[in-house]
Design a protein that fits this description.
Strand content: 15-25%
CATH superfamily of the largest domain: D-Amino Acid Oxidase, subunit A, domain 2
Number of strands: 18
CATH class of the largest domain: Alpha Beta
Helix content: 25-40%
CATH topology of the largest domain: D-Amino Acid Oxidase, Chain A, domain 2
Number of helices: 16
Distance between the termini: 42 Å
Shape: globular
Length: about 525
């Protein structure tokens, strides 16, 4: 996946594309994979980097949504459980089963949650993971030695999916390119092309070079997540907003706060949300909050109340109370919730996806969640085919392996998330032994990986590498800041940066990373 080669393909493409997609997050990339694998000509542009926004800032779970079952939204749970099963099958290098424990601190909670999780198992059907069961107090303390035991009665264990969100996005991009799509990061939409009031394409600009493009397409899809209303206003300045963003914040703690292989799930916190403490890449992710926000940004920041909420709940359920100095990183993401009624709490807004078709033909898709990205993509491409008039074709993504798909993997291997690409990284380190070393002692990231990200995964900035190609910024923000000069030096050689550009990249990343550090 080479950006310069893809830009050349875009320049050489003279006829209209079947489908042009704005937005390189989960939904847009999923749509590109779906459309390209059906045989359509596809171009996708992303203003920043793939999964820069919401799609790299999740709780890292592929799940049916236990809370939606409690709300009675059985159809959403059924859809999500089916998609969870398909993802485990199609991307086994990135998605795996993880045990979750619901601790019970009242005598009635064990049977109550036990029944609920049996319903969850039943709804998953043949695509289920492992069956749930009720645990005794001693069994829970064996599995969760750092769980608060005062008043603990027992609990329930069930299984859901875990994944690396940004890595999945990159592998979706590579899957789309493999099937003939042109996908470009750091390329923004600057306007829409119209003829007799109907959209016939879009105007785009390469952020790096300033180069302008006119991209003609039979169908244009707005898949920009929390920013869909911005694109809708390009089409119609009078359109009403449809997204009410909600902010979710996560704290990242050292692994010794939650040793073992099980996660904790608290079904109801003080703000009515589910709380998770999840082992991930040798750390523990604690989240999430649910705070309405009025303005969507690419770099949302955690609010003091959100941080206090998570620290308070961590102290409530863990034997060791975390202090600000324990927090390795803090990150925030915005959910593109579909607004239904004014004044409605964000926890009650729709998690289902919504597709709107404007009078101009612009197709907007928003809402949903990572787990259901594939189904969202199938639905929106079905709409694009009907409206674009270029023929209906069968969707093959339910059984389509995602790039890198490999089943013989050591889950403890730091290169496991690359799947079959891991062999290329090892070969690079073998050919150039100086690349085998880590970029920082506290990070698993090697120099060979940085080179691979730059050559084959369209990493264009230090942030691309340290935040999304690897997850260094989320795992240890201070270490990522220290590693930035080494990463920049490696990328500078590959991308022929000037000394000024290299210095700019380091400074930009370090300023950005300061927002991921919790001050004591």
């Amino acid at each position: 996946m080479n950006r310069e080669r893809l830009l050349s393909q875009l320049s050489a493409h003279t006829s209209p594309f079947d489908i042009a997609i704005i937005g390189g997050g989960a939904t847009g990339l999923g749509a590109a994979v779906d459309a390209a694998s059906r045989g359509h000509s596809v171009v996708l542009i992303e203003q920043s980097d793939f999964a820069k926004g919401t799609s790299s800032r999740s709780t890292k779970l592929v799940h049916g949504g236990v809370r939606y079952l409690k709300q009675g939204n059985v159809s959403l749970v059924l859809e999500a459980l089916r998609e969870r099963g398909l993802l485990v099958r199609n991307a086994p290098h990135l998605v795996h089963s993880l045990p979750f424990i619901i601790p019970s601190y009242h005598w009635w909670e064990g049977p109550f949650y036990g029944i609920g999780m049996k319903v969850y198992d039943t709804l998953a059907g043949q695509l289920g993971l492992q069956p749930s069961r009720i645990l005794s107090r001693d069994e829970i303390t064996d599995l969760l030695p750092t769980l608060e035991t005062h008043g603990l009665e027992g609990g329930v264990i069930y299984h859901d999916g875990q994944f690396d969100d940004a890595r999945l996005a990159i592998h979706l991009a590579r899957t789309a390119v493999h099937h003939g799509a042109i996908v470009l990061n750091h390329t923004r939409a600057t306007g829409l092309l119209k003829e007799n009031g109907h959209i016939i394409g879009l105007q785009a600009e390469c952020v790096e070079s300033g180069r302008q493009f006119e991209i003609r397409a039979r169908s244009v899809i707005n898949a920009t997540g929390v920013f869909v209303d911005t694109v809708r206003h390009m089409d119609d300045a009078t359109s009403d907003p449809i997204v009410a963003p909600s902010q979710g914040v996560h704290l990242v703690l050292p692994r010794d706060f939650l040793p073992g292989d099980s996660a904790i799930m608290i079904p109801r916190t003080d703000d009515g949300r589910v709380l998770f403490a999840v082992p991930w890449h040798g750390r523990v992710i604690l989240g999430t909050t649910d705070t309405p926000v009025h303005h969507a940004t690419l770099e949302p920041r955690a609010l003091p109340d959100e941080i206090a909420f998570l620290m308070q709940h961590a102290a409530r359920y863990l034997t060791r109370d975390p202090h600000p100095s324990d927090v390795l990183s803090i990150y925030a993401g915005l959910r593109p919730l579909v607004a239904m009624k004014k004044g409605e709490a964000t926890a009650a807004l729709s998690r289902d996806h919504t597709i709107l078709v404007a009078d101009s033909g612009l197709i907007t898709i928003t809402g949903g969640k990572w787990t259901t990205y594939r189904r969202m993509a199938e639905d929106v491409i079905d709409h694009a085919e009907m409206l674009g008039g270029f023929g209906m074709r069968h969707c093959i993504t339910p059984s389509l392996p995602i790039h890198g798909s490999a089943t013989v993997l050591d889950p403890h291997d730091p290169l496991a998330v690359y799947g079959s690409d891991a062999a290329d990284i090892r070969a690079l380190a073998h050919q150039q032994p100086e690349l085998a070393g880590q970029v920082h002692p506290r990070l698993a990231l090697t120099c060979a990986e940085v080179i691979f990200h730059t050559r084959h995964e369209m990493a264009r900035t230090v942030e691309d590498v340290l935040s999304r190609r690897s997850r260094s910024l989320l795992l240890d923000a201070q270490a990522a800041m220290s590693a930035a000069p080494r990463v920049a030096a490696l990328m500078a050689t590959e991308l022929h940066w000037t000394p000024a550009r290299t210095t700019h990249e380091i400074d930009h990343f370090q300023k950005l990373a300061c927002g991921y550090i919790l001050e004591g």
